[in-house]
Amino acid sequence: MNQYFIVFSALGSVLALLFAVFMAKRALSVSEGTDRMKKIASFIRDGANAYLRRQYTVVIVFFSIMFIVLCIMAALGFLTWFVPFAFVSGGFFSGLSGFVGMKIATGSNARTANACRTGLNAGLRVAFSAGTVMGFTVVGLGLLDISLWYILLRFVFHLEMEAISSAMLTFGMGASSMALFARVGGGIFTKAADVGADLVGKVEAGIPEDDPRNPAAIADNVGDNVGDVAGMGADLYESYVGSLISACSLGVIAFNLIDAVDRTYAFAVPLLLAAIGVIASLIGSFLVRTGESTDQMTLLKALRRGTNTSAIIIAIAAFPLVWFMLGSSYIGLYVAILAGLISGVLIGRFTEYYTSDTYRPTKHLAASSETGTATLVIDGISLGMQSTVMPVIIVGACILISFYVSGLGAPEAAKNSIGLYGIALAAVGMLSTLGITLATDAYGPVADNAGGIAQMAGLDPIVRERTDALDSLGNTTAATGKGFAIGSAALTALALIANYVEKIEVIDPSLALDMSIMNPVVLVGVFIGACLPFVFAAITMGAIGRAAHSVVLEVRRQFREIKGIMDGTTDADYARCVDLCTRSSLKEMVLPTVIAIVVPVATGLLLGPNGVVGMLCGATVSGFLLAVFMSNSGGSWDNAKKYIEVGHCGGKGSDNDKAAIVGDTIGDPFKDTSGPSINILIKLLSMVSIVFAALVVNCHLFG
Amino acid sequence: MNQYFIVFSALGSVLALLFAVFMAKRALSVSEGTDRMKKIASFIRDGANAYLRRQYTVVIVFFSIMFIVLCIMAALGFLTWFVPFAFVSGGFFSGLSGFVGMKIATGSNARTANACRTGLNAGLRVAFSAGTVMGFTVVGLGLLDISLWYILLRFVFHLEMEAISSAMLTFGMGASSMALFARVGGGIFTKAADVGADLVGKVEAGIPEDDPRNPAAIADNVGDNVGDVAGMGADLYESYVGSLISACSLGVIAFNLIDAVDRTYAFAVPLLLAAIGVIASLIGSFLVRTGESTDQMTLLKALRRGTNTSAIIIAIAAFPLVWFMLGSSYIGLYVAILAGLISGVLIGRFTEYYTSDTYRPTKHLAASSETGTATLVIDGISLGMQSTVMPVIIVGACILISFYVSGLGAPEAAKNSIGLYGIALAAVGMLSTLGITLATDAYGPVADNAGGIAQMAGLDPIVRERTDALDSLGNTTAATGKGFAIGSAALTALALIANYVEKIEVIDPSLALDMSIMNPVVLVGVFIGACLPFVFAAITMGAIGRAAHSVVLEVRRQFREIKGIMDGTTDADYARCVDLCTRSSLKEMVLPTVIAIVVPVATGLLLGPNGVVGMLCGATVSGFLLAVFMSNSGGSWDNAKKYIEVGHCGGKGSDNDKAAIVGDTIGDPFKDTSGPSINILIKLLSMVSIVFAALVVNCHLFG
Question: Is residue A1 over pLDDT 60?
Fold first, then answer.
């Protein structure tokens, strides 16, 4: 009887995947347009496919090595034999999410451009359908992976609930590793191409963005797909699955102490919430349509109608879910879910406030371009750092509320674990409407690409205007999406740390954990952890710097050596730039992931479990701050440039515009590579620590 | 018998002050040179005096309000009546340190320029004498303040050791508040002037640095004095005193548990170490002299001979000190002192590695200017973030070593408190040679100003070459100085947090402190604390942005409206720029200090003592990282520009140089305002928490 939940969870997964197939058919039924459009689209598609193929080759090597390492650990008795396989399956599904998203995105960019020739609503329909495919694929695959493993472990291997949730935590490590590769690799690719194309094309040669004469133009568009789409897909798959499994596991631990409630129900609640989320997102996605006005507010309302409806459905449905599954004493957990849902929206709104050009901060930033690049950069960094305050307050309030309110009705001995379960459920609540929030986020790069194709294929300017309207809106929804990604990353990371502590206590109950922040081992752990996001950001930015440098030199070379590029009589050598970006990004993406895996283990061996907990908390806090800072600085520079280019503060081509383009270029790695990959990092560190917990407990130097 | 130490400490103080007077006489005995030089020097002196006068007016208002607040707290029984007076005295001496430093600096800049007309060694002699005055004044006043209070509390009011050390901790709060005003206010002034002068003068009008035609030239030179000199003096006074009193206090607490050792001796060790440091610095400062070669390595060796000798003397003398005062069981504390001394040097060396143009990172950064400003900025930020790794490892190792080795010989129950005393002694060890390290640091701005005067007075280019050689070396020693400042700030902050915890336990021994990092209240505290340095950096950079903006507009206006500036027939309106910078910086310096005082109290009232400890640790860790990152990015941009301008990567006037100037301008607030003020912030937060501890223990919402 108590096992029926897995049927609902599996059904939710199937429903999401079927809907994704349906939307994919709808998006791909439109024509790709003129021959020139088809040709450009196929260039982009080929480049993206080639990149992913080569990326997966590198990834397979990494996964094979890790598989062997995990098998050795299992043979030594530090892990169960499920772990290596769970690890690989997590990586596989995460990669698949990105792959499907990229396939549909490269399939529908020309179609969106073509639909925009008819009208704005037609364009939105295609682009949003493509985004929906991505959103529901991620959600569907996530639920599928969890359901399959549960069925296997429970009904084939007959494991206990603790063993199941513990084994499942480890496939999060696979998903996070893959996500990091996708985000970092794709992020380096896209930004190297973007920076290279902008610096030489726009600034030096003075040709517009997406101009077919720019040798890096195709690479730039390929980058949007492999970075913003495939990277985002793998990333959010990891976030979604991470939040679910950490909540399921904490639920089992918390209700282990309480006789009145079957702990299977505590495991079931996050999954059922996710299944309800599928239905809510489905209903919401049918409400997204618009008229022919390119006004941003009208378009935004069209999307918001969908996301808000979904959120309201979840907010209502979660109440009976918690009430009937766990009983009225634990209804505080409903408040935690609600707190998570609201926090996600609030962080998104503040992100929008700081980055959208309809508000004071970005307008002020645009104005600071009048005194040159230096003041624009200083003010942009200042803006991003300042923008960390509200997210910190929101997340802090969310942690306190979900912890204390969840524990209200619990017996004294269980208050703490129920409170931690509450924090984990807040993360699940935040991500429960991922199907539709990701759809509104993922359609942006499709619209961006559509604009590029419209430009390169020389379509009527009205088409570009329409794609620009869609794209510009995409920047706002991306800001909201980032709010959810960052907020949920912090909460999920905390839930994972709680799981780690629990795991340590299970491995060696005699171990006297002293996690006091005044314990020098914990403190040094905090220092090391807090340093990691800085190092990570440094490495990814350095990599982009190097990669962009090579693209800049190549583009300059082509302008110099290939006659006829500038008058349009000869095609630029696009493939060369794509290849250059591919090689650079693959070379550079390995180190960050290796660091994320080696450092937690090394810290554990040196400082012991207490040091690891300090390290994880340090990384979570400093990672959260750095991610918010970098995302918002980058977003604001981007929009300040757009604001200037539509005619404010001197307008397009002015010195102010030149300063703003430099600002935007600096912001690119901030917001699209370093920032988002830190979100993955902080969870991966916890996952790795959990997987290697037994090793660390058995041998460490200090603590 | 056991009270004789205070005589030595007072004698050390008098010796330092006498030596400062002697060196001041030596520096001021040289002629100020030509009439033009005298006139320019008096312009700078008047501007600096006017600024300080107005700054102190604002500061007095702040101190009066705080004095009243503290008196009310004392009347309510939350504080002893010594606190308000201790607070004011700390502020007074800190301000006095800055004032004396600035007086001597503005008195010896023209003299240094004039001496450089004779030769390099003569110039070094005057500039270094001025720096020495500053170094020994800070050390002398610091020891004087502590000695006077000890004599007052011990021999007049007959207080117990605990009560003495507890009361003395609170005058650190006055010193830190004053230091923050001086650093932030002076920092905004100097950078606004610098950015303004550079952007319009060098970039737009194409005239050299320090050109007399630039209306902001005098303001720029005034800024060097009020920011880099007066700010640094107040700052290092605060660091020095903070490290001493926190160590004294932890010593009393630690040896309270041990019958075999008189705890007065534990109080005495830091002060005696400081007194020995005065003698060591004095000996070292006599060894600083050079020949006539402008070669950097020769000059550097001249300075290093002084600092290294002093460090070796301390390293030797500290052994008998610990042995005879505390006994052979606690000789581990000597290792802690040594660890601190070595860590300071190591952090300084890595700072140098990342910022000096003799090493790969800055050379690489200079090369990245070839692809424009954007890549230079991205790479500079990347470099700074990456440079946090080694300091984190060094400080982490220093914490672990000093904690564990110090506790080795201690009884089990006292291991922890002896370990914390060890960490505090490491900070004292790091700062024990402050007399000479500050001298080598503070002579830089004097040489910088001398160069400005040489340029504006139209002296022989050989003079400028000599001052440039001295100034350039100043950048390297400043890097070392920053290493000490940042490293000691982190260790002192930790010692202060330990004092806070102790204070809480004394106020209410029944309070069950749960400082586990998994306690949500602690965790939320860490989030809030970690956010503070970001906010702080944001506010100071924003302030510089605003102030610089107004300077840029004013300089542009003068170039446009005042005829004859460019051909040198009319003097620019220098006073107007000085006044503008003064007004901006005074307006902007209040908010940061208010935040630093209000947030710890508010956090305490909301989250209780556990939350405060979390907040303090969060601020210390994130502040340390941000300070290292910002100092090193800024330092490297500065030197990359210099590297280009001496003829590499395109040389002076090239596009690369223009990009590098923008980078340098961005780095200015990073390295000279935001970075250093974060060091003060993290200590001030702890001091405020200690002063308001009784209030917080008695009323708080959570935790």
Answer: no
CA–CA distance, A115 with A113 (Å, rounded to integer)? 5
Dihedral pair phi/psi, residue A516, rounded to 5°: -60, 135
Distance between the two ends of chain B, CA-based, in angstroms? 46
Q: How confident is the model at residue B294 (pLDDT cuts 50, 70, 90)?
A: low
B494 interaction partners in chain A (CB closer than 8 Å): 523
The distance of B678 to chain A (nearest Cα, Å) reads 14
**Chain A CB within 8 Å of residue B701 CB:** no
ipTM: 0.95
Q: Are A139 and A242 in contact (CB under 8 A)?
A: no
Q: What is the residue whose two structure tokens read 């079931």?
A: A268
- Cβ atoms of A28 and A108 within 8 Å: the answer is yes
Inter-chain contacts counted by CB atoms under 8 A, chains A and B: 226
Q: pTM to 2 decimals?
A: 0.95
**Of A627, A361, A452, A427, which Cα lies nearest the Cα of A41?**
A452
Cα–Cα distance measured from residue B135 to residue B141, given in angstroms and rounded to the nearest whole number: 10
Handedness of CA B644, B650, B653, B656 (dihedral sign): negative
Could you give the percent of chain A with pLDDT greater than 70?
Answer: 99
**With an 8 Å Cβ cutoff, is A689 touching chain B?**
no
Name residues 392-411 of chain B within 8 A of A (Cβ).
392, 395-396, 399-400, 403-404
Question: Quick one: CA torsion of A563, A565, A571, A575, rounded to 10 degrees?
Answer: 90
Amino acid identity for residue A102 in this structure: M
CA separation (Å) from A581 to A43, A194, A548, B227, B559?
15, 10, 8, 45, 47
* E strand or H helix that includes residue A588: helix A574-588
3-state secondary structure of B516: strand
HEC-encoded secondary structure of B605-674: HHHHHHHHHHHHHHHHHHHHHHHHHHHHHHHHHHHHHHHHHCCCCCCCCCHHHHHHHHHHHHHHHHHHHH
Q: Average pLDDT over chain A, rounded to whole?
A: 91
Q: Which of A62, A55, A57, A99 is nearest to A188 (CA)?
A: A55
Distance of CA B370 to the CA centre of its chain: 34
pLDDT tens per residue across span B57-103: 999 999 999 999 999 999 998 888 998 999 999 999 999 999 999 99
* Euclidean distance between CA atoms A162 and A267, whole angstroms: 10
What tokens were used for B256?
């309270």
Q: What is the pLDDT of residues B318-345, one digit of tens each?
A: 999 999 999 999 999 999 999 999 999 8
Dig out the tokens for A331 from the structure.
């209804």
Nearest 5°: the CA angle A530, A536, A539 is 145
Give the span between the Cα atoms of B489 and B239, in whole angstroms: 7
CA distance B107 to A664: 46
* Greater pLDDT, B335 or B291: B335
Report the distance separating Cα B599 and Cα B245, nearest Å.
23
What single-letter amino acid sits at B184? V
Select from A687, A535, A689 the least CA-distant residue to B393: A535
Choose the mutation target among B402, B504, B531 for the interface with A, i.e. most A CBs under 10 Å.
B531
Q: Which two tokens stand for residue B415?
A: 């291991």
Residue A512: the pLDDT is: 77
Contact A281/B at CB under 8 A: no
A 578-637 near B (Cβ less than 8 A):
613-614, 617-618, 621-622, 624-625, 629
φ and ψ at residue B221, rounded to 5 degrees? -70, -35
CA–CA separation, B522 and B613 (whole Å): 7
* C-alpha to C-alpha distance for A406 and A420, rounded to whole angstroms: 8
Determine the average pLDDT of the residues in A33-48: 90
- CA B487 – CA B628 distance, rounded (Å): 9
Q: What are phi and psi of B516, to 5 degrees?
A: -60, 135
Helix (H, G, I), strand (E, B) or coil at A516: strand
